[in-house]
Design a protein that fits this description.
The protein is of the alpha/beta class and 405 residues long. It has 14 helices and eleven strands. About 7% of the residues have low confidence.
Length: 405
């Protein structure tokens, strides 16, 4: 069994809490205060300022959580009046997309906790993948995209004889959508195509989190099951997608973490990361990247210089709390280091409240074909909206008649 080849890591993390979205009575008050903001709505106006306050909280809490001995070894001051923002950026290594990582951690943690709002739609997605039963779902974290390109070949060669990895490969190769490949000829690096594996009903299936599912049947490990917050259009043949619909102010939470991720990487390594942030998150990241020589205290003061009403009402609700997160991983030291490597365990790991990731209105979408042969996304019992039509079979425009010579 895959479960016997795993162990549970208890990871230190910081839970970033943000307020709920503004209620109707708050929006009325905000409309008066933001009357001079001609380029944004009241909700956008307050949202931008909440993101600034959340970014300040993330930066401040990260500095406060660093081991003083680490600061001393790096000849860095723990005093925000002396430490520059450029120096603080090095304390965010290894640089990852904090918002995406928080989502992955939350999905793994909440599946293993048996949260019905998530386990019910995932169980329906597994049923569509050929896995039935009502036994407990176990999520095992992988996230193997952190293998450096220069070390990839050597790393996978070293894992060839790992009993834990071989057991996992065997289970996946005989799971849903495996096509019965000979596992003795499989390249272990195929594991890099998945973020997690789900064990349920005596079967094991690969899944991705926060990215589109791949086409089933094209590979022994196509990771055709996905858990996302935004729909993947078009869905590929055989793919199944769980769309979770959070009820919290997820946009503000993710924008703050995304802004910090992008700015810290640019300050520390140079170059701008692609495709991480947009909108207010991108604007704040750009301002942070330009503040390399300013002290942390100066940057925090500037970020928190928001409207007094926003600071009074929303500021106290933006907090960070040290927490412990339980994440099962494959029982192999080399494999474990790929997902939250040793340096990351001492570095920043952020999470959030449950309603920032999962809500009661999740939807299961899967690829089906219409009678005419056109593919479309079919919603599950939790969802109502139908996906866009896609695939072959739409028909071709008739050719114009050709005149005879």
């Amino acid at each position: 069994m895959v479960a016997t080849a795993t162990r549970e890591l208890i990871l230190p993390a910081l839970r970033l809490d943000v307020p709920d979205r503004p209620a109707a009575d708050h929006l009325s008050a905000l409309a008066e205060r933001s009357a001079d903001a001609w380029t944004s709505t009241p909700s956008q106006w307050v949202g931008d300022q909440v993101v600034r306050l959340a970014v300040a909280q993330v930066l401040e809490s990260r500095l406060a959580s660093v081991d003083p001995e680490r600061l001393q070894r790096a000849s860095l001051s723990a005093d925000p009046e002396e430490l520059t923002l450029g120096a603080l950026a090095g304390l965010f290594r290894p640089h990852v997309d904090l918002a995406a990582q928080a989502f992955q951690v939350a999905i793994v943690e909440q599946l293993n906790a048996g949260l019905p709002a998530l386990t019910d739609p995932v169980r329906e997605a597994l049923r569509r993948s050929g896995i039935t039963g009502r036994d407990r779902i176990q999520a095992i974290a992988l996230g193997l995209d952190k293998v450096p390109g220069r070390a990839r070949q050597e790393f996978w060669r070293s894992l060839a004889a790992s009993p834990a990895v071989s057991g996992l490969v065997d289970a996946l190769a005989t799971g849903a959508g495996s096509d019965g490949h000979d596992v003795t000829k499989l390249d272990r690096s195929h594991l890099a195509r998945a973020d997690v594996v789900l064990a349920a009903g005596g079967r094991t299936v690969a899944a991705v989190v926060g990215q589109p599912p791949r086409e089933a049947g094209g590979s022994w490990l196509g990771a055709a099951l996905a858990v996302n917050r935004q729909p993947s259009n078009p869905l590929r043949p055989g793919a199944v997608e769980v769309l979770v619909r959070p009820t919290g102010w997820t946009e503000a939470h993710d924008a703050a973490l995304g802004a910090v991720s992008a700015a810290m990487q640019e300050l520390d390594l140079g170059g701008k990361p692609r495709g991480r942030v947009a909108g207010v998150g991108a604007a704040v990241a750009a301002r942070l990247a330009a503040a390399k020589q300013r002290t942390v205290a100066d940057v925090l003061t500037s970020l928190r210089a928001v409207d007094p009403f926003v600071a009074e009402v929303y500021g106290p609700q933006i907090t960070t709390t040290p927490v412990r997160v339980a994440v099962p991983v494959v029982e192999d030291e080399r494999l474990m280091e790929l997902w939250l490597p040793t340096s990351a365990l001492a570095g920043p790991l952020f999470t959030g409240a449950t309603d920032l990731y999962v809500g009661p209105d999740s939807e299961v979408r899967s690829f089906t074909r219409t009678r005419e042969g056109a593919g479309k996304a079919r919603p599950g019992p939790q969802g109502k909206a139908q996906g866009k039509a896609q695939g072959k079979g739409r028909g071709r425009r008739p050719r114009p008649p050709q005149s005879k010579p």
